[in-house]
Design a protein that fits this description.
Length: 262
């Protein structure tokens, strides 16, 4: 689930400004030296097991029913910043709220376990449909870090790469709607430190994004990235988590689609 906190709708954030923006896509991870590439790669089972343990382990995740995160978002592309909040509840309920420009623009995105919805000042309130809804079913699993192989049955370990100065194992999987994910796992900590995604948006345009997961710290018994940098053509965002709370009561009504305004 910690990965999906980063997936606030990039398209909706772009609506904040009508000013043209320069492409600020992050540099792609580099291929490793030949000697490193020759070393034996872990199997999918080994990789998933190492990642699950690094994130805190199945027992630690099993103790949790809810997670609440609060923090900030900076969008240097447009020179704006704001606040973010994520409410997540087992097994797959989530509400993400992003508020920027002193609350002038508030974007909400939620999934209640079966249905999803999105709300913002430009587009109003809309139900998720089609590939976006199917994608939400995959991306909102509460304990995805310990269920990677179950969520991505076609997951395949593909090689090695450099993410900055860190050696990483690469793995590729696919989501509904045609999105391809390339995940990068630190070969020392086994935490996921980066991800590339490529796939069509609602209009059919292929969108690429690069995510960097940084500042891993303990949150209870878990290891969570407290800073996530997202780069895509025309936009760069930085999310910082200031506070994480577990097992606080969260009413299911918070995830339900609001009644449309008359």
């Amino acid at each position: 689930m910690n990965r999906k906190l980063t997936y606030f709708s990039l398209a909706s954030i772009l609506l904040i400004s009508v000013a043209p923006a320069r492409s600020q896509t992050a540099p792609a991870p580099k291929d490793p030296p030949p000697a490193a590439a020759e070393a034996k790669l872990p199997s999918v089972d080994e990789l998933c097991d190492k990642f699950a343990k690094a994130s805190g382990g199945k027992e630690a995740w099993a103790k949790l029913q809810t997670m609440t995160m609060t923090g900030t978002v900076d969008i240097p592309t447009f020179g704006v910043s704001g606040k973010m909040e994520i409410l997540a509840k087992r097994p797959n309920k989530i509400l993400r709220i992003t508020s920027v420009m002193d609350g002038q623009y508030v974007h909400k995105e939620a999934f209640d376990g079966q249905a999803g919805w999105v709300s913002d000042p430009q587009s109003g309130l809309k139900a998720m449909t089609g590939a976006k809804l199917e994608q939400a079913k995959v991306e909102t699993v509460f304990d995805s870090d310990v269920r990677l192989k179950e969520i991505y049955p076609d997951l395949k370990v593909t090689g090695r790469a450099k993410v900055g100065d860190r050696d990483a194992i690469t793995a590729v999987a696919h989501e509904p709607g045609g999105k391809t994910l390339t995940m990068y796992f630190d070969e020392k900590s086994w935490l996921r430190i980066a991800e590339d995604s490529e796939g069509p948006d609602e209009s059919g345009t292929v969108v690429k994004a690069n995510l960097i997961f940084e500042d891993y710290r303990a949150a209870g018994d878990l290891q969570l990235a407290h800073q996530i940098r997202i780069s895509a053509p025309n936009i760069t965002l930085v999310y910082k988590i200031d506070d994480v709370k577990f097992n606080e009561p969260v009413d299911d009504a918070k995830f339900a689609m609001p009644a449309a305004a008359n």
